[in-house]
Design brief:
The protein is of the alpha+beta class. It has a single domain (6-75), classed as Beta-grasp domain (Ubiquitin-like (UB roll), Roll), CATH 3.10.20.30. Helix content is 21%, strand content 36%. It has helices at residues 14-20, 34-39, 42-45, and strands at residues 6-12, 24-29, 32-33, 52-55, 58-60, 65-66, 71-75. The protein is globular, with a radius of gyration of 12 Å. The termini are far apart. The model has no long low-confidence stretch (mean pLDDT 92).
Length: 81
């Protein structure tokens, strides 16, 4: 692991979970936006739905810069009734 990098946990739901095949994964990353971190996973970059992101349980904008160890939840839109 590089000196400037840190480990984050991705929690995946709905289509994101189906695309990756797991509900949770760890990634070693450097300071980057939430969207860029999520897009670093090829299967997630290819999702055809806009996702929301939550960092440590709080909704954030995709351009929020992640600078330390945290949990990022990838939240595809909910459908149904």
């Amino acid at each position: 692991m590089e000196e400037d990098s840190f480990t984050i946990t991705l929690q995946l739901f709905a289509q994101a979970k189906d695309a990756v095949g797991t509900s949770e994964m760890e990634l070693d990353v450097q300071s980057e936006t939430a969207k860029a971190i999520v897009d670093s996973v090829p299967a997630l970059k290819e999702l055809d739905v806009p996702c929301a992101y939550a960092v440590n349980g709080k909704l954030v904008k995709p351009e929020t810069v992640i600078t330390e160890r945290c949990t990022i939840a990838v939240l595809p839109p909910v459908s149904g009734g």
